[in-house]
Amino acid sequence: MAAFARVSGSVGLITLQNPPVNALSAAVRQGIVDSVQRALREPEVKCVVICGQNGIFCGGADIREFSGPMSGPPLIPMIHSIEVAAKPVVAAIEGSALGGGLEIALGCHYRIAHSKTRLGLPEVTLGLLPAAGGSQRLPRLIGVPAALDLITTGRHVTAAEALQLGMVDQVTDRNVTDVAVKFALSVVGKPLDARRISMHSCPHSPDLDELFERTMQHVRQRARGAIAPVACVQAVRAAATLPYAQGMEKERELMATLFTSGQARALQYCFFAQRAIGRWSMPSGARWDTSKPRPVHKTAVIGLGTMGRGIAVTLAQAGFPVIAVENHEKQLMEAKQAISGMLERGAKRRGVTPVLNKITYSRDIQSVANADLVIEAVFEDMALKEKVFQQLSAICKPGALLCTNTSGLNVDHLASQVRNPELVVGMHFFAPAHVMKLLEVVYGPRSSPEALATAMAVGKKIGKVSVAVGNCQGFVGNRMLEHYMEQALFLLEEGATPELVDQALEEFGFAMGVFRVSDLSGLDIGWRIRKGKGLAVPDPTTGQTARVQQGRRYSPVADLICEQGRFGQKTGQGWYQYNTPGSRVGKPDPWVHNFLKDYRAQHGLVARRIDHQEVLERCLYSMINEGFRILEDGIAAGPEDIDVIYVFGYNWPRHRGGPMFYAHMVGLPKVLERLEHYHQAHPDVPSLQPCNLLRKLVANGSPPIQKWKEVMKKINSRL
Ligand SMILES: CCCCCCCCCCCCC/C=C/C(=O)SCCNC(=O)CCNC(=O)[C@H](O)C(C)(C)COP(=O)(O)OP(=O)(O)OC[C@H]1O[C@@H](n2cnc3c(N)ncnc32)[C@H](O)[C@@H]1OP(=O)(O)O
């Protein structure tokens, strides 16, 4: 709702009241409409101030209302009534003014912001555009180039930047409502037309046509198939070229298309999923709101390879003192230099002082004795990690949390190496660790709720999107990825080329297809892991790696490519060819095509035509099927956890919501039917066999994704 009060004799103060972010629910909109009418009606009221309660102006339209029938007064006429008011209206902005919240402020005649406020029109990130006049008013206020930037990216600006852009009239460090009340009294009686943004055209900008063309091209390239950024450009173009009323009509038309789109549903799902993962629970019943994290003051990182360096930087940038340990002198020196460079570049980008003194370096593992949390990031080798954990168990102070950054080794096994297994968890960072947002926090059956709560709290403090998952081979992300990659290799055996597979995945919205990603990260990593599992090993009698291993189909194609020394970009050759080692631009490679032809001939495989649809269905549905198995096993608490992992760690196109949401959008019966079809054609590929939970969900009438947990509970009593 919104409260009305008369303050300082003649100021009508309207306070938005809808915790936690004063979202513009139907009740709040009704409250504003009533309050504005009252303020205009009462002769004692000479001016109006609009503010929000609890330190936040407004987080925008109530996103939860978008999924049901809309009721209550609409935003556009409400904002119009503020703009045409005959008494001056001042927005007193603190905390955040986002989306519809900023659009209300743009309807006011003046805007005063607290210095800590952030403002923005983030609708594009929800698959929408600022359709309460924001796309038409903002360019009129701050000019087309700046408005295009803000509206197409959805980025938030600080109060200082907002002042510079002309979005606000004044910034204060004092109580913003008090300042706004005083200011409102000072403008009573002044003409208002000049302050009504919709009455003006956009300020002149040269070469507008060229700007729109360039922006459209840029937006299309970056959007990977997302439609909202394109609609945002079209809406701003309408503001620049049409009178206000016609611009508003265009804004409405564009919004009508976006509002009901699957992409908007996916992006809004992601918004809530990202928040839901913070409310973790363990099979034991322990939860985020009943488990207290331990205090963490000092941290340590063991092993300063690529991952260790990134982790140390992340911890230091978040303010933690870090003891960085590396026992090889040369590696330690190199790491020191690399870490300092990363900290300096990061600080420059953020306009702050580099925190070089947060990190102390040591060759001696004993130096971590006083750390509250230690992250082991040594080479991915179980024997080596075991040794490190045994040492840590003897060295670390009681109560210290011992974490491993393994990307898939058994966390329980590592826990068994220490005196206090309840204090062991996995903290699986993604490379580069100081850039990638995702953190999988892996708990085992012996991890205590306190240990998980501590790792989750540290994850939050270092700015990671942290997802709690159970322990299993590959955890959630890599366990699913294995099936995706396996299908891609099978498709090569059956007639596809790397570029055909990649093109299908890139058209779907991945920034890079599976083979391009392999070339970028290095083919040798997977090869080493497969050898470790006893897979990529030639049969001593035939000299060939078998195509059936451990009772299932196996493709040795990637191993054979590695045997040629083709490790991807770093060697100048992999699934693609590169002009020089280290070059980033790959071209289709006739050598790979001939190799595949020979390989098929050698194994009596007949190449067939494979289309994009098959690529998508085989790669994505096999991975989704594994996602259902993960839910069935209780490794992830819900589909949101899996989707957040894929969006933040594996570049899954956000406008498709994550693999599990995608399955829900495609329709579970269709996913089931296609998996059955492919499993019939490839009975030796178990990952194509539809899993129990998927069948159960379909048998239960394919409930919406928000209701899957009910069916999951029936299958797995631990959940
Ligand atoms: C048939 C065709 C018809 C077509 C026409 C349709 C007509 C419709 C026209 C409507 C025009 C609308 C135009 C305006 C659109 C919008 O405003 S869309 C919303 C834009 N705003 C945002 O994107 C901001 C989202 N929120 C945030 O970024 C952050 O929450 C915050 C405000 C910066 C605060 O951050 P923090 O303090 O970290 O808190 P959080 O944990 O993020 O949030 C706390 C809880 O609040 C929930 N929440 C936040 N914002 C909203 C919101 N706008 N609506 C609903 N709920 C919100 C958030 O989910 C958290 O709750 P839990 O999920 O329960 O944890």
TrEMBL record:
Highest taxon in the source lineage: Eukaryota
Keyword entries, A-Z: Fatty acid metabolism, Isomerase, Lipid metabolism, Lyase, Multifunctional enzyme, NAD, Oxidoreductase, Peroxisome
InterPro entries per record: 3-OHacyl-CoA_DH_NAD-bd (IPR006176), 3HC_DH_C (IPR006108), 6-PGluconate_DH-like_C_sf (IPR008927), ClpP/crotonase-like_dom_sf (IPR029045), Enoyl-CoA_hyd/isom_CS (IPR018376), Enoyl-CoA_hydra/iso (IPR001753), NAD(P)-bd_dom_sf (IPR036291)
Keyword Ribonucleoprotein: no
3-hydroxyacyl-CoA dehydrogenase C-terminal domain residues: 474-578, 615-703
Residues annotated as domain 3-hydroxyacyl-CoA dehydrogenase NAD binding: 299-471
EC number(s) per entry: 1.1.1.35, 4.2.1.17, 5.3.3.8
Protein name per the record: Peroxisomal bifunctional enzyme
Lineage start: Eukaryota, Metazoa, Chordata, Craniata, Vertebrata
